[in-house]
Amino acid sequence: xxxxxSVTFGTAATHRTAxxxxxxxxxxxxxxxxxxxxxxQSSPDLRRYPASLTKLMTLYMAFSALRAGTISLDQAVPxxxxxxxxxxxxxxxxxxxxxxxEQAILALVTKSANDAACALxxxxxxxxxPQFAAMMTQQAHALGMSSTTFRNAxxxxxxxxxxxxxxxxxxxxxxxxxxxxxxHYFSTAYFRFHGRMIPNHNPMLKxxxxxDGMKTGYTQEAGRNLVTSAIRNNVRLVxxxxxxxxxxxxTLVMADQLDRGFDAEGVAPVERPLVLARNTVSxxxxxxxxxxxxxxxxxxxxxxxxxxxxxxLTRHGHHVRATPVVGGHHVRLIGAKVHPATASTSSKHAxxxxxxxxx
Length: 359
Known about the structure:
five-stranded antiparallel sheet, D-alanyl-D-alanine serine-type carboxypeptidase, cell shape, serine-type D-Ala-D-Ala carboxypeptidase activity, cell wall biogenesis/degradation, carboxypeptidase
């Protein structure tokens, strides 16, 4: 009994410590992707919950298996009952069906689908997601991610699944450098799955000049996380931001960190007008075109901001496109097109987040 109480108390204390490390505090780091030189950092070694940034390791394992020839892009990935029980975000596949390895990869980099991640993990782990998680952890340690432990393939909450911003930057560098033939998947704007158009959730692809991947992550416990790689003048950086309190904060902090990184590398600055519009559906009495805006430094210098749709959400099973407000009027935003925003729009702020959706 005394031993059990000691173990229970120790576990609870560990969890409280972990919570104290991420609550209300950002962790960030920017590295040169080629050399590994750290260009900026803020609390990069706090152990935190990765949320869907976990899927970067799932993808690393998939790319490794593709190169080794143990799986192929057109290979069928069985969908188990366990995979279909994953919480959203998900494709909504049903037990007994299949998707291909390439479809699973695309589902992870765009929609951050937890059911696809689990199914892919079970394939790579010999039918067992816990076995795959152990393989992920072993691979992470081999890459030098000494503070990382994985417990599942998706990043859904587990108190023992921990990492750091520094470890994730190491992983991002390896994804870029180890698999140049597969890195292009991270810049996928959308893909079709069973007649549906699945868009990419990553706002940096549209909002930051030179950004061409990687991944967002969110759970209530982790906060808003983001890993980004961007290239300018043949200089590639990888950046990590963890624990942001909102998507706009997460995106703006990342953009600022990358700007400073490129400046440190001697890359000429690029004007960064940045206003993000995010569509949310929070109830029948709320407008679908709610707007979140980020006025960047260039906007403060008098440059006209630009509105960019972060990602459409779904309502009653249908995708709803973001409708940014321009000059007081709702304007449909198609694909990656952007529209100038008037000065009046930069003073409007409205944030409505679905805390149940984990991406």
